[in-house]
Amino acid sequence: MAIKEKTPPEEQKLEGGQAAAAPEHTGPETAQAAPPEVKKKRRVAPPPKVKKALDPLVTKAKQKPQTAVLGQFLYDVGFWAEYTVLRAGRRLRSFGALLRAKACAAGQFLKNTIGKSLVNAWRELIAPFARLRNGFKNIAALVREEKKTVGTAKAVGEGLAYFGRGVRRYAPLVRPSFAYVLPVLALGLFVYVVNTVLGYNYVLAVEVNGKVVGHVQSEQVFDAATAELTQRIDALGDESREFTITPTYSLDVSDTLMDEAEMANVLLQESSDEIQEATAIYVDGELLAVTTEGEELHEFIDSLKAPYEDPNNPNLRVEFTKDVELQDGNLYFTDSITDLQSIIDVLTGEEQGQVTYTVQQGDVPGSVASKFGMSVSQLQAQNPQQDILKEFFVGDVLTISQAMPYLEVKRVVTRTVQEEIPYDTVTTDSADLPFDTYKIEQEGETGLDEVVYEDTYYGDSNTPETVEISRTTLKEPVTRVRLRGTKLANGMVVSGTNGTWVWPVPNYKGISRWMSASHKGVDIRANYGASIIASDGGVVTTAGWHYSYGNYVIINHGGGRQTLYAHASSLAVHAGQAVSQGQVIAYVGSTGNSTGNHCHFEMFENGVRISAYKYFAGM
Predict the structure, then answer these.
(1) Alpha carbon distance 300, 400 (integer Å)
(2) Ranges for the LysM domain (predicted)?
(3) Is domain 353-405 classified as CATH 3.30.360.10?
(4) Beta carbons of 555 and 583 less than 8 angstroms apart
(5) Less Cβ crowding at N or C end of the chain, within 10 Å?
(6) What is the biggest distance separating any 2 CA atoms in the chain, rounded to whole angstroms?
């Protein structure tokens, strides 16, 4: 059977240009184009031993008509596999040279060049595998054609035999293929290992006395478990019982983890056979007692709160004054079990507690002691930091020790109310208005707050302790703006008034006496001629002589406020004059009904004389 030379399956051109796809091989009789001319390479002869072993097989195969077709096909596959590997090597070397030559080229040009080269390299990299796949397709097609003439079994046998000889003949091409296959396999293995290792749940295996008792997330869990176990042992009240356990840890993989309570149960099982499942009651985090009557204990705890609960009031919360927690199902030493009645006696009993009391106006040691049902000596014993008989002042905080319920129920009621926010008033001087007259330039408006309070009632008490929880402003207040006239009839303008007071005699020596039922003001001692200043700005309404006051000055500060300064040696202002705060208005002397140099100072608010001690208590 005549065999025509077959066009290479993947390329029509070998040097430069894009390879044209070859038509699929359909059988030995299919016409094929001749392969293009290529530059011949020196072929490497097989080793003598291999050649000697293959020669008889080759001679026998040549006698069969199918051998030529299959041989030509395998030759093409081997030829193109070798050629592709060599060409890929040249391309890779060219690619490396290109990178070195273009290393300093412009960034965009370098980017485009690398991109195109990578595409070409990728194509060359997968080309042998693509050709190998096509080779197997061609072998399958060849076998299908042969079995039509010689039968299936013989066609397959001949195909496999010849394929084996072809593989042995082109064995040198297998080694280069590892350069492609092994890195891919290594990468796949690496990804698999990393993914598998990262997916493991690594935990600590706890080993006690040579036995793994469980797994925990961290050493802290085991430490908490031993602390829990220590509390269970302490519940016995037997200090002679010793408990020492030294664990070892190892890294392990497990999906089952224990918490503190579970680990404590396991440790307890490992340490003693005399254990029992029970219910524990914790008060403020401390183990109070353990009982096997857990259901009854739950019912008793609920019964303490039941009288105060109201399911129809969502704003009511009933709690204990202490944090109470019941834990069921844990293991405890049998001799630590307590009967239910003993626990009830403790919960409903009393304990010594401490409260604080702040001394109020009018309190004396005896009245405070009586209020708490104790003697003064007992009150003194509880407050050794001070001698309450000698040092007992308003604001002192005393510590009172007294019997208190061990466990008390409290009701916490949350309420939301709206409260008005008072507006501020800003007073601005106006020279357009007569002195001491006022005009509202902007009316004030109250704001509105939404306030959440918590009222806490203890026991049966109806007097709550109120705590503000939050405050939200719904409406901001609007400031009231008031104009205050400063214009006098004589054209002068009052300035320097700010509604505050300053001491009228800066360089004073002392105070002879304050205002009393028999004395109308405060007498401020000072040297003769010392300056007397206006306690606030205003207008002088009086500046002259009085038989009792001697030389004196009265200033109207506006807003119903007035001040009087008497017994001056001389005056520095006149009636109708505007003065500012701190301005010198007179000088200290002893005129009128006076003994010694001093300034007699009086203050008035809305026509009522007030004591200067209200504003100058520290002088």
Answers:
(1) 32
(2) 355-400
(3) no
(4) no
(5) N
(6) 162
